Amino acid sequence: MNFYKKSASRIMHVSQAIIRYPLSSLCFLILVLLAIVSIHSDGPTIFDIEILAMLIGGIAAFTGQAIYERFFRGNQLTRWGIYIGVILFILLYYWLFLRNQTEINTPTYVRSSALISALVVAYIWIPSIKNKLSFSTSFTTIIKGYFISLLFSIVLEIGILSILTAFSLLIFDLDSRVYFDLTVLIFGLFAPLYFLSYIPLYQINGKGLSEKDKQAILVPKFLEILISYIIMPLLAAYSLILLLYIVSNLGGQFWNNNLLEPLLVSYVIIGFIILFLSERIESKSAVIFNKSFPRILLVIAMLQTIASLLKINQFGLTHGRYYVIMFGVFAIISSIIYSFLQNKEVYVPALFISLSIISIIPPIDAITVGLNAQINFVEDVLRKNNMLVDNTIIKNEDISLNDREKIANSIEYLYNTDGVKLVDWLPNNFDIYYEDFENTFGFNHYDYTFTDDSNNQDFDSNTAEYAIVSLNDNETFSVTTENTDQFFYVSINNTEYVSVPEQNVPFDINNDDFILQVLSDDQSFAINVLNNQNDETINFDLKFLLNDTFEYLPEVQQLPIDDLTFTEENQEGSIKVIVKNLETYADGTYSGKMYVFVSLNN
């Protein structure tokens, strides 16, 4: 009976969350409906941008609710006024940044991630403004609520999936897309509502909290032990390694190689998360950590920010380096606040929100600044080599390898961030991965060597850390399709800028439903055919293409079709893959395009 009472109580709390957060609930419901429609549509998803807008809308709505509860509680007219303001905000954001996009590209992802981060931090911070409730208390409650809702959602997902699988196997065969519908419903609607149901209705100055809310804001003993005796020592050891690296390389290598740059953002975020979580922990290790970590972070952040600023002279400013510098500034100021000021829990989140908002407002946002900086940077390099005259590119095969690298890196950045359309000296429909680059600049995109910054010597021009292969453009070929049941054109992406770990394309043969599954992440590179029970009919593991199949050379290798055709067969049928182009790198990333022919036995 106790189980049923607890279940009924939790369901009631979720229903109360819907009443408490009506606009967020509506946004998450629309998000789920759009996702389900996309799942059941033929071909790629069709509402990615709208789904993103609804996600931002749901988060903005519960942040608006926090403003109402902290400053205007009881004033329903103000509450609905805030909701109207949230709706107008989302419409404005959609109109300015999303409406012309057909997919979530790099600029969209960067801007939206920064906005979501600012809104979430604001939701945590607002209840503590001019209140006895501390920011660390609100922060701890949010963290607990997130992981509890995640755990419940995973358990619920596993349970219902098990039931549906048993039903599909034993009673009636279900469409495989039902499983995806369930996942979207649980993690797109149930999980956020369950999370919101966990967040207390904070009383101003800490008075009148219910027993449920008091339990929600307590720091669990498990969390105290985890932070004090596991996470803090690990972070301290990690900080020591960073300091040793910096001190031992201050003579020059640190300023050139700059290995810390990609680590700084995550280091700052994790460090401050632990700081806020440990504020209410009274263990000796927590006290020592809270006093020493801000000072260690101050040293690391100052040196790394200076190094990143110097790096701009070498390869220009990008949105990634913009955020590294921004987080460096945030870490420096926040470390000073933590070390010398009393109201640190007021200023630190306010600073984070301010910098995040600045990073998405044109013309000083990360994307605009990065694009303009790279355009100016590559134009300076081109003019230095007399390759840009009267806004026209003049081919030059004899420029230095270092300048080739700068041009190639900048053009690749502009291409990956949709910035080529801003450059009027590039040809229309410019594609960096084909002959457009060489036809424009006179040398191949990958036909340069890297420079060893430690001694300014070029590496061996016959070696490279990548293999680029493509079908021979000068060769005419034919493909027999007599026994082919289905043809696909597949795009593979697992790179720093774009990562699509899984693609599922439904198709049917003789009224039987199948799915072409394309896996391309760090662990898997495969093309599979799944039947209507989501079982593998044919598995074609393509990892061999990433290893020693192609030689690493600093040039594009144009190969005949026979060298780029691969087949996998079993008793169920066959998959034939013709590689149109493929780029594989020593760090494990890769991208490319392939023709896929599927034949199934009757």
Quick summary:
It is built from 17 helices and 14 strands. The protein has helices at residues 2-20, 22-39, 48-71, 76-98, 106-125, 135-170, 177-198, 211-217, 221-248, 253-257, 261-278, 284-315, 319-340, 344-358, 366-384, 401-416, 436-441; strands at residues 388-389, 392-393, 451-452, 457-458, 466-471, 486-494, 502-509, 512-520, 525-530, 536-541, 556-559, 565-570, 573-585, 590-600. Strands 5, 6, 11, 12, 13 and 14 form a six-stranded mixed beta sheet that branches.
Structure description:
- By secondary structure, the protein is of the alpha+beta class.
- It has four domains: 1-217, no CATH class; 221-361, no CATH class; 368-441, no CATH class; 468-600, no CATH class.
- It is 55% helix and 14% strand.
- The chain is built from 17 helices and 14 strands.
- The protein has helices spanning 2-20, 22-39, 48-71, 76-98, 106-125, 135-170, 177-198, 211-217, 221-248, 253-257, 261-278, 284-315, 319-340, 344-358, 366-384, 401-416, 436-441; strands spanning 388-389, 392-393, 451-452, 457-458, 466-471, 486-494, 502-509, 512-520, 525-530, 536-541, 556-559, 565-570, 573-585, 590-600.
- The strands form four sheets. Strands 5, 6, 11, 12, 13 and 14 form a six-stranded mixed β-sheet that branches. A four-stranded antiparallel β-sheet has the order 7-8-9-10, with no helix packed on it. A two-stranded antiparallel ribbon has the order 1-2.
- It is globular and about 75 Å long.
- The model is unreliable at 449-462 (pLDDT under 50).
